[in-house]
TrEMBL record:
Name of the protein in question: Catalase
Key word Zinc present: no
Enzyme Commission designation: 1.11.1.6
Entry-linked PANTHER family: CATALASE, CATALASE-B
Keyword field: Heme, Hydrogen peroxide, Iron, Metal-binding, Oxidoreductase, Peroxidase
Organism: Sporosarcina psychrophila
Catalytic activity: 2 H2O2 = O2 + 2 H2O
Entry-linked Pfam families: Catalase (PF00199), Catalase-rel (PF06628), Catalase_C (PF18011)
Length: 688
């Protein structure tokens, strides 16, 4: 709890990016309508016509401007990461990283750098649901005094492929199949699994995709990773290989698959709503930033290639050094202008952060810029307010679509004498970016290093690191996903492939999807990495959501005390009843109901506090509460029962045991319930 922000709203950050954006914010309240050329408009109801019933005239410039703008309000959505949401904040440095990098924003402890962070789903279209099984994007733009630095990552530390040339194949395989444009935002179909079985470098990533990491509870509760190996370079020119890690203050928590599917129908905006409401309520999203570092002299001392994007560096072997914290504390003013127009690019670096020869990273360094040029309408997308650097920028680039700068002077080339050879370049000492002087030699060749050809050892490492519930979830996910594949041949290929990871896993998959079990592929490798299991994560009740199911004639003193305790620990409370309005306790206490059984659903809560009581339609009231209890119990969630809620426990399918907390004859109920909420899931619960 000590790493979390205080539970109150902060004023907009007094930093340069907020001040810069302020000039672009426009509030139209109380103003007179004008055209985009600032001409006052006298009529916005009728187009200009030749006679009252005649044709519309082309000279109606306001009509044409209004319709033309409307026709072009949508820009092409991203091919991947289309479904996204974002927030503003700042990054604060804990300790100087000067020993390792000359990046200006990482020099002085306490330095605050404005950031803009976009979370996203990879596969689905912009209109798909938040809670599908998918990789999540985790992209952060740092507005530093040396220029914009983009840390463009995911919530999974590795990727499906090793070389950028395979990226179009992967995306074509995982997106809806071209002959029928189905399924949307899902990997449970033939072409994806055919790709997996025939591109076995994907084995490790698929294990993560089948795990709970692919269905996060909240963007505030998922890790972020830079995925690739980058370089830190210090003032002395010494380079180190680095991997970036974002560690959420709330720990790493996930949904269960049945719950995730139901949320997609009940609230497809579940995760974006969670981020928006949390920030609006002052419960800011926080993540610590760290790096794993390997000296260049140690590049070849591991049993994995440090440049292979399908491999992670186990934290027990290469620890994560935490050096700062990001706080997201302000929602966007306009989703299109900011979230949709923001352009990230892994090539946006600052002095002290550089690239490596990771072939997937090398592909991204081309692809991202190429994409932004097409999607955002030309080379001037950097002048869009959300993409604008906070420091001045000067160069000889001119013209192009939507140019916003008014460049003065006759010179637009380098070198020149007419402008005294300005803008001039900067030396490294003046802050000029100098590429790391890595020695490169070799024949021109299209090939893959032998060190990249181990596809299964880290997939086994991941499997061995999982707790029994996590392994069961992975097994169930495989059976669900592969069970949707129509081709029996592809199903068999997948089973045979994952026997290289674990024969027992493959046997279970084969049994569930109707193909032959594998034979003779058992590999007895027991290496594990505890850092990979969510069972070892931080657990706090802060910002978790509890539904209070309540009617009339409850015990007012008991409920008031319990709700006060929940709010003391930062738990969000929704009062759910038969209808909106007020319910009255047996002792006269009035409680305002802000949600009903129709407007909410148990999958939208992390826990329930069952108060019960009486209602106008008692039978339906009882039935609704039973449904809420049964669903939450099935999803392993904690449930607290007030003294008046005990009859509803008896009516339900829930059983006394882990995570079920009763107020009757329990003076410590409030504290016990908060502890259960912090635990979040009770996997050892016996489900009916």
């Amino acid at each position: 709890m000590d790493k979390l922000s205080p539970n109150h709203k902060q004023v907009i950050d007094e930093n340069s990016k907020d001040k810069q954006l302020e000039q672009f914010r426009v509030n139209n309240e109380g103003t007179k309508m004008t055209t985009n050329q600032a001409l006052k408009v006298s009529n916005d109801e009728e187009s200009l016509k030749a006679g009252i019933r005649g044709p519309t005239l082309m000279e109606d410039f306001h009509f044409r401007e209004k319709l033309t703008h409307f026709d072009n309000e949508r820009i092409p959505e991203r091919v991947v990461h289309a479904r996204g949401y974002a927030a503003h904040g700042f990054f604060e440095l804990y300790e100087s990283m000067k020993e390792f990098t000359k990046a200006g924003f990482l020099q002085e402890p306490g330095t605050k750098t404005p950031v803009f962070t976009r979370f996203s789903n990879v596969v689905g279209s912009k209109g798909s649901a938040d809670t599908v099984r998918d990789v999540r994007g985790f992209a952060v733009k740092f507005y530093t005094e040396e220029g914009n630095y983009d840390l463009v990552g995911n919530n999974i530390p590795i990727f499906f492929i090793q070389d950028g040339i395979k990226f179009p194949d992967l995306v074509h395989a995982i997106q809806p199949e071209p002959h029928n444009e189905m399924p949307q935002a899902a990997s449970a179909h033939d072409t994806f699994w055919d790709f997996v079985a025939n591109n076995q470098e994907s084995a490790h990533m698929v294990m993560w995709l089948m795990s709970d990491r692919a269905i996060p509870r909240s963007w505030r509760m998922m890790e972020g990773f830079g995925v690739h190996t980058f370089r830190f370079v210090n003032e002395q020119g010494k380079g180190r290989f680095v991997k970036f890690h974002w560690k959420p203050a709330l720990g790493v928590h996930s949904l269960v698959w049945d719950e995730a599917q139901k949320i997609s129908g009940k609230d497809p905006d579940f995760q974006r709503r969670d981020l928006w409401e949390s920030i609006e309520h002052g419960n800011f999203a926080e993540y610590e930033l760290g790096v794993q570092m390997i000296d260049e002299k140690d590049e070849f001392m591991f049993d994995f290639d440090v440049l292979d994007a399908t491999k992670l560096w186990p934290e027990e072997i290469v620890p994560v050094k935490i050096f700062g914290k990001m706080t997201l504390n302000r929602n966007v003013d306009n989703v299109f202008a900011e979230t949709e127009q923001v352009a990230f690019h892994p090539g946006n670096v600052v002095p002290g952060i550089d690239f490596t020869n990771d072939p997937l990273l090398q592909g991204r360094l081309f692809s991202y810029l190429d994409t932004q040029l097409i999607r955002l309408g030309g080379p001037n997308f950097t002048e869009i307010p959300i993409n604008r650097a906070v420091c001045p920028f000067h160069n000889n680039q001119r013209n192009g679509y939507s140019r916003q700068r008014i460049d003065v002077g006759q010179v637009s080339y380098h070198k020149n004498s007419l402008a005294d050879n300005t803008p001039s370049t900067s030396t490294a000492k003046e802050g000029g970016f100098v590429h790391y002087a890595e020695k490169v030699e070799g024949r021109i060749i299209q090939a893959r290093s032998d060190s990249f050809k181990d596809f299964f050892s880290q997939a086994r490492l991941f499997w061995n690191s999982m707790s029994p519930p996590e392994k069961q979830h992975i097994t169930d996910a495989f059976i669900f996903e592969v069970g949707k594949v129509a081709s029996k041949s592809v199903r068999q290929q997948v089973v045979d492939m994952f026997a290289n990871v674990d024969e027992g896993l493959a046997i279970h998959i084969a049994d569930g999807v109707g193909v032959n079990p594998p034979t003779g592929k058992q590999v007895n490798v027991k290496a594990s990495s505890p850092a990979l299991s969510q069972e070892n994560t931080t657990r706090v009740p802060y910002t978790l959501k509890v539904g209070v199911l309540i009617g009339n004639d409850f015990n007012g003193a008991e409920v008031k005390r319990a709700v006060k305790t929940l709010r003391k620990y930062g738990v969000t409370v929704d009062i759910v009843g038969e209808k909106l309005g007020t319910v009255r306790g047996a002792d006269g206490l009035n409680v305002i109901v802000n949600e009903t059984f129709l407007t909410m659903d148990p999958v939208l809560f992390d826990s329930l506090y069952v108060v019960g009581g009486t209602a106008e339609n008692q039978a339906k009231f009882n039935s609704n509460i039973q449904y809420f209890i049964n669903e939450s119990f099935k999803h392993y969630k904690p449930i607290g029962f007030a003294s008046t809620g005990l009859p509803f426990f008896e009516l339900s399918n829930a059983k006394a045991g882990p995570g079920i907390v009763f107020a009757t004859d329990n003076p410590d109920f409030d504290d016990d319930f908060v502890k259960a909420i912090a635990q979040q899931r009770f996997w050892d619960r016996e489900i009916y």
